[in-house]
Design a protein that fits this description.
The complex is a heterodimer. Chain A is mainly alpha-helical. Chain A has helices at residues 3-18, 33-61, 63-84, 94-125, 131-153, 160-171, 173-183, 185-218, 221-240. Chain A has one domain (3-24, 32-240). Chain A contains nine helices and no strands. By secondary structure, chain B is an all-alpha fold. Chain B has one domain. Chain B is 77% helix and 0% strand. Chain B has ten helices and no strands. Chain B is globular. The chains are: A mainly alpha, B mainly alpha. The A-B interface holds A 48, 52, 55-56, 59, 63, 67, 70-71, 74, 89, 201, 204-205, 208-210, 212-213, 216, 220-222, 224-226, 228-230, 232-234, 236-237, 240-241 and B 52, 56, 59-60, 63, 67, 70-71, 74-75, 78, 82, 85-86, 91-92, 201, 204-205, 208-209, 212-213, 216-217, 220, 225-226, 228-230, 232-233, 236-237, 240-241, 244.
Chain lengths: 242, 247
């Protein structure tokens, strides 16, 4: 098998693993307001935790570039929100607010996969002996990201299958970006900190502006806080030590 | 990773500096009269962002430590903050009520600020034990973070008729627990380095839980979500970026 095909297939495996994040929702029949709040809190914690890891990796390639990327990520979300049309949380209707949030999470997580795909390709470029270990690590690491997406989609009426499909979709940029990054390691290494910063900026901003305030509206403050904190720390430790 | 007990003075000095900067929180009230709720929200957002940045710094610094101890410490830190909130009956308390003049509310606000500062002291002590530059960075970050936090406290106090000088003094007084905890945690970790991953985990868990249970939910009620998100992420980004020079 050619190395390019190997990188692509390994990348594809990691993308499919993201779909497993939808599985917990098979066992959750009824979705109450409190469950929506928990889902928002958990998605928020997972994305904040993932951003911590991404920033730590980005700064090893260049702190200024990561910072610049982060700024672009925030601007990207602001532009996307503008493009989706102005919306006031107080007067906007529920369906439209839900559709907007679902669209945003899929966009944000898909964009973040581009950066991760580059990171995968660049690390493969370092030597193919670690390939299997890296693939396994990324695949496991992707599962909670699928969980974050499903936690936003499922309470808003998407089926578990659709949640899994959108989770996998959000990770497809990984194999697609891993291949060129693997082939042109040096060029992509330059771009990597910008991409990682971009992904982190977009995720953190989306969490702070959309997911957390909604969670606090729907459930008691201490409950939301403890769920966000626990998932955040668990996600950082999980991804850091994998 | 080496910590020398004779450096305890440095910890005392920087932790005191950090607590002392709370006096600057009275600034807006010396010049103007009252602070609109929206600006109090932004002050909370600055404090929240810096807190998350500090938690990131600790986690990044602890990358090589034992995961089980860090995880257990973090769980303890989260439970400590959540537990003290519940035990003191402040878990659902509106922390920025400007019109409540009751004695009970006054005590609760001072208590919650003292407990808040204690967790920050653990963060400073732990960071000092990891390395002195990182500890000084942490103390300075917490020092700057204390200013908007003190401004929020001073808004409540001056609203209750407390004079400016008295309010500033109370803001510093609630931060004294920070100095105590910083010195004690540093001394303990210096004497027993095995405690470091526990202390680090505890500090991370406590800082994140304080952000999520006090600072962020408070600020979302006070002004637009977008302004809060922007101010928080900028404050966080600055701390994360600056850490690069101290690590």
């Amino acid at each position: 098998m050619s190395p390019v095909l190997t990188v692509f297939i390994y990348g594809l495996v990691t993308a499919i693993a993201t779909g497993f994040g939808a599985l917990p929702f098979l066992f959750l029949r009824q979705i109450s307001t409190r469950a929506v709040a928990s889902a928002n809190a958990i998605a928020g914690g997972l994305m904040l935790g993932a951003s911590f890891g991404i920033v730590a990796e980005g700064t090893t390639f260049g702190a200024w570039q990561t910072l610049a990327g982060g700024l672009l990520g925030v601007l990207f979300i602001l532009a996307t929100q503008h493009w989706l049309g102005g919306y006031d949380p107080d007067i906007g209707n529920v369906d439209r607010a839900n559709a907007r949030r679902m669209f945003l999470i899929v966009i944000v997580m898909t964009v973040h996969s581009f950066a991760e795909g580059v990171a995968v390709g660049v690390s493969f470029g370092g030597g193919a002996t670690l390939a299997l270990a890296i693939t396994l690590a990324i695949a496991v690491h992707n599962v909670p990201e699928g969980l974050a997406i499903s936690a936003v989609l499922r309470p808003r009426g998407k089926t578990v299958l659709a949640c899994a499909a959108w989770s996998i979709f959000s990770s497809l940029p990984q194999p697609l970006m891993a291949v060129p990054a693997f082939l042109f390691v040096d060029a992509f290494k330059q771009a990597l900190p910008y991409g990682l910063g971009f992904a982190a900026g977009a995720m953190v901003f989306m969490v702070l502006e959309e997911l957390l305030p909604e969670a606090y509206d729907q459930a008691r403050r201490p409950l939301v806080a403890i769920q966000v904190s626990l998932t955040l720390v668990a996600m950082v430790l999980f991804q850091q030590y994998l | 990773m080496t910590a020398h007990p004779d450096l305890t003075l440095v910890v005392l000095l920087f932790a005191s500096l950090s607590a002392g900067t709370a006096v600057l929180g009275i600034g807006p009230f010396v010049f103007g009269r009252a602070l609109p709720l929206g600006q109090i929200g932004l002050a909370n957002a600055v404090a929240a962002g810096m807190m998350l940045g500090a938690a990131y710094g600790l986690l990044a610094a602890g990358a090589g430590l034992g995961i089980t101890a860090v995880a257990a410490g973090a769980a303890l830190g989260i439970l400590f903050v959540a537990g003290t909130h519940t035990a003191s009956g402040t878990e659902d308390l509106d922390l920025n009520r400007l019109d409540d003049r009751s004695d009970t509310y006054g005590y609760q606000v001072l208590l919650i600020n003292s407990l808040h500062a204690a967790s920050e002291g653990i963060a400073i002590g732990t960071a000092m034990a990891i390395s002195q530059p990182f500890g000084i960075f942490m103390a300075l970050a917490i020092a700057v973070h204390n200013i908007p936090e003190a401004t929020v406290l001073c808004a409540i106090l001056t609203g209750r008729g407390v004079g400016n000088a008295h309010a500033a003094a109370l803001a510093v007084a609630t931060d004294v627990s920070q100095v105590l905890l910083a010195v004690v945690v540093y001394a303990i970790v210096a004497a027993a380095p095995g405690v470091l991953p526990w202390a680090l985990g505890f500090a991370v868990g406590a800082l994140v839980q304080l952000t999520m249970s006090e600072l962020l939910p408070q600020s979302y009620r006070q002004t637009r979500h977008r302004s809060i998100a922007l101010v928080t992420i900028v404050a966080m980004g600055i701390v994360v970026f600056m850490r690069g020079f101290a690590a």
